[in-house]
Amino acid sequence: MESSSENLPPIASLSPSVISFLNYTFQPTHDLLNLCDSNRLVSELETQCSHLSQLLSDLMQRLDASLVSYSSFSDRIGASFNKSHSELEDLKFKLSPFASTSDSRGEKIVAQELAALAKEVARVEMVRKYAETALKLDSLVGEVEDAVSSVMSKNFNKYSIAQSPEELLVSAIDSLKFIEDVLASVTKAHPQWVRLISAADQRVDRALATLRPQAIADHRALIALLGWPPPLSTLSSSNLDTRRPYEMSNPLSELRGEFKKKYCESFTALCSLQELQQSRKSRQLQGYSGDVALHQPLWAIEELVNPLSLASHHHFKSWLKKPEFIFALVYKLIRDYIDSIDELLQPLVDEAMLKGYSCREEWISAMITSLTTYLAKEIFPSYVAQLNEESVTDVQQSRLAWLHLIDLMISFDKRIHDLVSHSGILVSVEDYSLLQRISSLSVFADRPDWLDMWAEIELGSILDILKPEMEDERNWTTKTHGAVPFLGSEDYKSPGISSLFLRHVSSVIDRCRSLPTLFLRSRFIRSVGAPIIQALLNSLLTKCLEAEGLTALADDDALTRVLTSINCARHLESVLKEWCEDVFFLEMGLAPDDESGKPFTENSLFTGVSEGVGNGVFDDEIQKMEEFRKEWIDKITNVVLRGFDSQIRGYLKNRKQWQEKLEEGWTVTPSFVVAMDYLQGKMSIIELGLNGIDFAAVWRNLARGIDRVIYTGILTNNAKFSRGGIERFGGDMDVLFGVFRTWCLRPEGFFPHVSEGLKLLKMEENHLQGLFNQGEEWMKNNGIRHFSVAEAEKMARCRVFL
């Protein structure tokens, strides 16, 4: 050893790089004693020298190519200037004969030559700028390619310490950003230089395709060296309970000194690289119509989430039958690390000028994306397979397990939304991209067939619950049996069954609110809510048909059943219309349908469901309810009119009574009293059992029908009216008007034919002569508007004057 040390050169003669190399290679003192491995060291040094020689050769070739390119451009520019110089000499020669003259021809030639010269000078200037820009870009891209090669060579040259890998990466990214700034300015100033920009972009893309995987690999190795992910082996179902706080180790909070500096530099470099990629994409897509989604997950956050997710999957596999533990673990990981990630990493994201990114938001989004990926690959396929089992018991259990999983997902999303709101992240109801990224139910966005399966299971479960309720006759009365009536049921005299159905539809709507997209919400409600309403409508129709089939609605009990069904339909219709006016439903109704592809315009926002535009979620159901009510209101009206017609038939056929006075002691015709008694009895039942809105429609329809019956049966039946007969007819009509005066102030207006006919009959003979002389004008002046001239003249001839 002494002889060896004597042969060593003095330390003062060694360069600093050699001293650093020796210090790095022989760090412990015992390495000096282990010189038997010198051949390996010499071999590694020779390999490095060979690699550096190859890099030097490549650089020389690239320099030669650049010099040739520069020489070519210089020759072209020189030729352009020589041409311009010769053209200027020619112009000087041509202008000399006209120097002392001022004729118009000379001025014209001068103007033409000057314009051509200016155009040529501009062309030469453009060529010069193009050549300078091309040379500048070629030089810059060449430097970037060298920097990328240096970054890549760090994997082979582990003894080089001139620059750290992080410094080389930052230098390469800075060069790429400078090139991007140049390309952006060229694109703005000279958009016609498409080929030059495209050529530079292709070379930069090749450099980025090499740099990004290497940067991610280096960052991945660094976080593994720092002890990430934290160990999850101590976790169990007992310490996942949020009521028992269990502190997990947090390597990010424990970073100190050099390790923290290296991690922050690597994180910032990766964010800067992503910002560069985003800027390039924004520039390349500039000018294209339509919205382009430029937002990508934060790469550095994904590198934290991916190993943590892989470590969690070990626990997930043992919890396939206990999915509540899966959601509890994911929530715990999100909650425990979100503050430290925000405090440490958010300033680094801001430093990298990466706009529109929140570390809290990206952490939650990446964790939930990992969860939904596992749900889509492992959980849901197993649940779908269980549903295909032949055993009825197994299928029933699978349906319950499916609904339990959905309940867990909805509960998990609510907890995440609470965490997001308490974390200071602003989530707008219109920001569906963010809602989708922080919702576990976004698993249905890529698999709408699973959404259909959920809807089918949900619908079957609800109908199984409602089936015995529909068979219970107590639910078809207005008396409540323990259940709280739904809003509006008392106003519409609706039976309890309507509140039961609306409560279940409301629960379906509440469950679908957690779905992150409008299309999924609309599809789920149409698949579950609409069939539930249709089931009730079918039951209402069945009950009405049974009542009609038994007694043709002549029986009071059958009539009451129909009235109850109409009230139920009215209650449902009013609630559905109220729901459809809410913003939640308006958005779903106006959103484009993926199947039809029909977009909506701004004008659609000002059209309501009542206008029949067809843009509401429950439009079809509302329309069916309206049709059902109108149909059975018309049937009730016709039943009452048929009964009234049978009661008043004798009164109508007795035409002699209109030439006679009433017997003493009578103020109304006895046969008319019988008909009025029937009418009042039916109207009392209908008024008692029917809601106010539909009852108004019934009595208006009845008034219109009775008006037509009396008009055709008496006034146009060629009956002769004396003065006493007119008083008799007027007294009977006063009784009729009195029945309807309970529901309106001026019932005569709802009996236009009877009122105007009675008015015409009460006129004196000389006054009636004006009808025959003036016709329509006379009728208009006397307020007769519902008869033709012929009909009025016919009634006037029936008047007997003594």
Automatic annotation (TrEMBL):
GO aspect biological process, one term: regulation of ER to Golgi vesicle-mediated transport
Gene Ontology cellular-component annotations: Dsl1/NZR complex
Pfam families the record matches: RINT1_TIP1
Protein name (Swiss-Prot/TrEMBL): RINT1-like protein MAG2
